[in-house]
Amino acid sequence: MTRREQQELIDKGLLLPLMEEFYTIQGEGYHKGTAAYFVRIGGCDVGCHWCDVKESWLAELHPPTETSKIVKNAINYSDTIVVTGGEPLTWDMGPLTEQLKAKGVQTHIETSGAYKLTGTWDWICLSPKKMKGPTEEIYAQADELKCIIYNNDDFKFAEDQAMKVNANCILYLQPEWSKRDKMMPKIVDYVMANPKWKVSLQTHKYLNIP
């Protein structure tokens, strides 16, 4: 396959830069505590300085992988597939989710929403970032809004984002891991004063699992 042919398949979403895939327990948000198969797609230019998977940023580091192969691996483990990154919406998610849905599995995505929403999803976790905000279309479709709290200013950012999502969207505040001891008491106080919000924790890190 020539480089041009490969790029055409990537542009069509038939090849994706696969960083890793693994079966584990969902650690965050609404589905925490449930088993799921995670597909981590490389490539992200949002650039969160506190990102704990910076190795996902450069798509070139991760092998272009056939979506059919990703699907074949995933359905052996779980009927819930979580696509994450990096920023998975950097790429066309249509072919991947079309094949997954044809196998009868649930499709979840974790995204900053910085790019056009592609694919068919049973659950959309929107985790917006200040550096590159979401597209307007995704606010209406998000099932949960997960705002990362790194400092006090992030509470205002979270409220601004909450005003844009649909009325049924579940609202979460989650401490950035390195700041959890400092920010967790503030998050607890905030949620108690503003009960439309819920607390989300990275429980997988406490459990010492992927």
TrEMBL record:
Pathway: Purine metabolism; 7-cyano-7-deazaguanine biosynthesis
Reactions mediated catalytically: 6-carboxy-5,6,7,8-tetrahydropterin + H(+) = 7-carboxy-7-carbaguanine + NH4(+)
Residue ranges annotated for the Radical SAM core domain, each copy included: 31-210
Lyase found in the keyword field: yes
Cofactor note: Binds 1 S-adenosyl-L-methionine per subunit. Binds 1 [4Fe-4S] cluster. The cluster is coordinated with 3 cysteines and an exchangeable S-adenosyl-L-methionine.
E.C. no: 4.3.99.3
Residues binding substrate: 25-27, 40, 84, 210
Pfam family of the protein (one): Radical_SAM
Residues that, per the record, bind S-adenosyl-L-methionine: 50-52, 86, 127-129
Cofactor: Mg(2+); S-adenosyl-L-methionine; [4Fe-4S] cluster
Keywords annotated in UniProt: 4Fe-4S, Iron, Iron-sulfur, Lyase, Magnesium, Metal-binding, Queuosine biosynthesis, S-adenosyl-L-methionine
Domain of life, source organism: Bacteria
Protein residues bound to [4Fe-4S] cluster: 44, 48, 51
Function according to Swiss-Prot or TrEMBL: Catalyzes the complex heterocyclic radical-mediated conversion of 6-carboxy-5,6,7,8-tetrahydropterin (CPH4) to 7-carboxy-7-deazaguanine (CDG), a step common to the biosynthetic pathways of all 7-deazapurine-containing compounds.
HAMAP family reported in the protein's UniProt record: QueE
Quaternary structure (record): Homodimer.
Sequence similarity: Belongs to the radical SAM superfamily. 7-carboxy-7-deazaguanine synthase family.
PANTHER family: 7-CARBOXY-7-DEAZAGUANINE SYNTHASE
Protein name: 7-carboxy-7-deazaguanine synthase
Organism: Winogradskyella pelagia
